[in-house]
Write a structure and sequence with these properties.
Layout (H helix, E strand, L loop, with lengths): L5 E9 L4 H12 L5 E6 L3 E3 L9 E10 L3 H14 L14 E7 L4 E2 L4 E2 L8 H10 L6 H6 L5 E3 L2
Antiparallel strand pairs: 1-4, 1-5, 2-4, 3-4, 3-8, 6-7
């Protein structure tokens, strides 16, 4: 573990069961991870599945300050997914909970287990819109323009 905490960005999504409740619970759970503090959360957004089938997703983005390494954080996120009954029967299957590590400070990494920044974050309205809310410096107008064809609704 490093001595100085870093800012990390986690995308949260669910489209099975009570997705709103699951996403809200996951946002709270992120703040309960060891050596991790929840800094900021976006609004909730409803989106159609991207490159997948199934019910609409509820999505959000959270910023956490953590002393966990990027791999430790990834494993903690996977543990939270498992606690919510996450299964991976096939690529882009509907899910009870999906937690994606989008950024870990400015770290770039490409291993079999983890790629940072997340390789498709710039292609997804369900990441860009909530990210623009909590970390606007990361999202340009051009990025938002590029995903304008993806239907997304901010929930109140």
């Amino acid at each position: 573990m490093d001595d100085s905490p870093v800012l990390a960005c986690v995308a949260v999504g669910a489209n099975l069961g009570d997705a709103v409740r699951t996403v809200l619970q996951a946002l709270q759970d992120l703040g309960r991870l060891p050596h991790t503090q929840l800094e900021k959360t976006s609004s909730l957004y409803r989106t159609a599945p991207h490159e997948a089938k199934g019910p609409d997703f509820i999505n959000a983005v959270a910023l956490v300050r953590t002393e966990l390494s990027s791999l430790q954080l990834l494993h903690a996120l996977q543990d939270l997914e498992q606690q919510q009954g996450r299964q991976r029967p096939y690529k882009n299957a509907p899910r009870t909970l999906d937690l994606d590590l989008i950024f870990y400070a400015d770290q770039t990494l490409q291993t079999a287990e983890l790629t940072l920044p997340h390789p498709r974050w710039q292609e997804r309205a369900f990441v860009l819109h909530p990210l623009a809310e909590v970390w606007p410096q990361r999202v340009s107008a051009d990025l938002l323009q590029a995903v304008q064809g993806q239907v997304i609704e901010r929930l109140h």
